[in-house]
Design goal:
This protein has 278 residues and is mainly alpha-helical. It is 76% helix and 0% strand. It has 2 domains: 50 residues; 205 residues, no CATH class. It contains 10 helices and no strands. The longest helix is centred in the first third of the chain and has 58 residues. The mean pLDDT is 83.
Length: 278
């Protein structure tokens, strides 16, 4: 006997199908809601990034707005001349220092530390730090660029005298950058020299950058770079411990002296040369 299909018998099956469709629809709605939330978060992040870029560009533009270009160019030209003379002085004294045969040594800290090849930090890391500082200074500190060059020139000049007068050669066990490093092997003897230890330029110049830049972030960042360079100098035995300590004391003294000389003596000279602005 064939069962008769009635509306009552077919109703549960229809409800089950409808419930399945509703479940699928709810799942699609849930996924769509998640997609909308994800897209909204991505849009918010992109909008913040764009706003940050606009703010950075506005800050750079503001740094260059109202710049007295005649004063800036005249001062910069004068300071570049002083910097070039300082570097010429350094190359000549550095060449002379390399002609001497100086006795090496070791200090208690170097003797206690292991020798670790961190030469890439002292070469490519050193280059990256200087490039970053230069770009940041040009973009955000155009008014202070003459002072920065004067500061670096003063540091190089004073350090050259120390290198010239130093009677001590390379530390025992030093990893020779002129032989083991790709970058310094090509500039050694021309732009940098072997017998220049007191005081550490790798440590001192990033420290000067930390004193020069005004934002807390960059002060801390370049101080971190300086400490990183100091550690690399000690672990590769490219400097004595006294060279590292001397870099901080001498760097701070040179910064204070350079700031006073520049803003009290040099800057007013160039301001007097310029005709009054109508």
């Amino acid at each position: 006997m064939v069962p008769v299909k009635t509306e009552t018998a077919g109703r549960p099956r229809a409800l089950a199908a409808l419930e399945a469709e509703l479940t699928k629809l709810e799942e699609r709605l849930r996924l769509s809601n998640e997609d909308v939330t994800r897209l909204r978060a991505a849009f918010t992040l992109a909008d913040k990034a764009e706003a940050g870029v606009r703010q950075e560009l506005a800050e750079i533009r503001e740094s260059w707005d109202d710049l007295h270009y005649k004063w800036w160019c005249l001062t910069l030209a004068g300071v570049v001349g002083l910097f070039a003379c300082s570097y010429f002085f350094y190359t000549n004294l550095g060449w002379y220092a390399d002609q001497r045969t100086l006795p090496g040594g070791i200090d208690p800290l170097l003797a206690a530390l292991p020798t670790v090849n961190m030469l890439p930090v002292l070469s490519w890391g050193w280059l990256a730090v200087h490039l970053y500082a230069a770009v940041h200074a040009v973009l955000y500190y155009p008014r202070q660029m003459p002072f920065l060059l004067f500061l670096l020139g003063s540091f190089i000049g004073v350090r050259s005298v120390f290198v010239f007068l130093s009677p001590i050669g390379a530390p025992h066990g030093m990893l020779d950058m002129s032989k083991m490093d790709y970058l310094f092997s090509r500039i050694m003897g021309t732009y940098t020299f072997q017998n220049e230890f007191v005081f550490s330029g790798h440590t001192g110049i990033p420290f000067l950058f930390s004193l020069f830049f005004e934002s807390k972030f960059h002060k801390r960042l370049f101080l971190l770079f300086s400490l990183m360079m100091a550690a690399a100098c000690l672990l590769t035995k490219n400097h004595y411990a006294v060279d590292i300590l001397g870099a901080y004391f001498m760097g701070y003294a040179i910064f204070i002296l350079s700031r006073d000389v520049y803003f009290r003596k040099i800057r007013p000279i160039f301001l007097k040369v310029l005709p009054p602005t109508p």
